Amino acid sequence: MEDQLNYSGSASWLEISAKALKNNVEVFHKIAKGRYSVGLVLKGNAYGHGTELVFPVVHPLTDCIYVITPQDAFTMRQIEADRKLPRKRILVMGPLTSDEVLKCSHLEIEMVLGDLSWIEVLPILRSAGSRSIVHIHLDTGLGREGFNSETVARDLEFLKDFGDVMTIRGVMSHFANTEDVTEQDYATSQVAAFKAGVSALQAELSLGPIEEHLSASAATLVIPAANFSRVRIGISLYGFWPSPETRISSKLILNDLPKLDPVLSWKCMSQIVKKLKKGSFVGYGCTFRCSQDSWIAVFPVGYYDGYPRLVFGKAHVLVRGRRCPVIGRVMMNHIIVDVTNVVSDSTPVEAILIGNDSDEILSAEMLASWADTIQYEIVARLGSHLKRKLVS
Ligand SMILES: *Cc1c(COP(=O)(O)O)cnc(C)c1O
């Protein structure tokens, strides 16, 4: 077990389940029933799960991958080359320098046109004899990148002169408020603005058949009218419900509760297990004092790795299938756990920081609620330095 040596040292590691990833993609193919394409979002190091592990697993399961930075897209083209995989469609949704636009065009990476900086890029593309494929971003109510539906036709009139260097393949937008609510009035207004923007663009630029995409995970699960020709699945690819509200609405709307499987587990071997006498203090600030003789385990994982300091006083981890409280403050590279109930000697123990052990579940959502945040942030902040291991 050479691999075992690699990741069971003193540091913590992540286990990424290929089976869960496949299950979650399948869930969305079943919901789509072929009516629209299911694209997958691998931004932010695949939501902290690790681009290098996740990309090869999902590569055969989708027709298009979405990222924010061109660097992620370049990494993916490299993985394809190294593994002799065919090129999959990749769409960069974030901002680009002109050099990056040229490199993306060269590597057949699609881009998003969401502001007027492209006016300067198009002549550069032309003199380089290059051609790019873009999706126009409409801001239908998020207040982020994109053109307003009412002015987009005028704003982009100049594109008429650049048909030789640019193919417009799609129009996209992004919802502002689908997760936190069970009524979708705001989203409905965004759908209407999106349709208006697409019509205006068609009238002005005669785009011909184009892709239209607006929905992320939540809207795909709860707003069938917003699913157009494709959807962009992010958080739910990794087995998470976007929110409790989405879960409730989804059951009503789909008449079924899709079974999403969490993909990631986070584990750590103890650095030391020892006994402290009643009255001993634990951690910075002496915020915790043992009320009895106690067994504690020190784990070499902390806020540097993405374990939130804010969980102080609330969190537990799983040791030998039982909940054991994190005591004292979370440190940069350490947490301390009270293991009095599960150990009786100083043999090293493994802690599950996120994951399951027998019937105990410690979800990223639980960690998020202790840290006053959302599961998106918990997983996205898992250090890119952590060892990640693909499991079946
Ligand atoms: C992050 C993102 C998504 C995916 O959202 P989820 O809620 O994670 O499914 C889709 N589209 C855009 C533009 C995004 O930034």
Tell me about this structure.
The protein is an alpha/beta fold. The chain has helices at residues 2-7, 18-32, 43-47, 51-58, 70-83, 98-106, 118-127, 152-155, 185-205, 217-222, 244-254, 364-370, 375-380, and strands at residues 12-17, 37-41, 64-67, 89-92, 110-113, 132-137, 166-172, 211-213, 230-233, 264-269, 272-276, 281-282, 288-289, 294-299, 316-319, 322-327, 335-338, 350-357, 360-362, 387-391. The strands form three sheets. Strands 1, 10, 11, 14, 15, 16, 17, 18, 19 and 20 form a ten-stranded mixed sheet that branches. Strands 8-7-6-5-4-3-2-9 form an eight-stranded parallel sheet. A two-stranded antiparallel sheet has the order 12-13. It is elongated and about 80 Å long. The protein starts with a helix and ends with a strand. Pyridoxal-5'-phosphate binds next to helix 10 and strand 9.
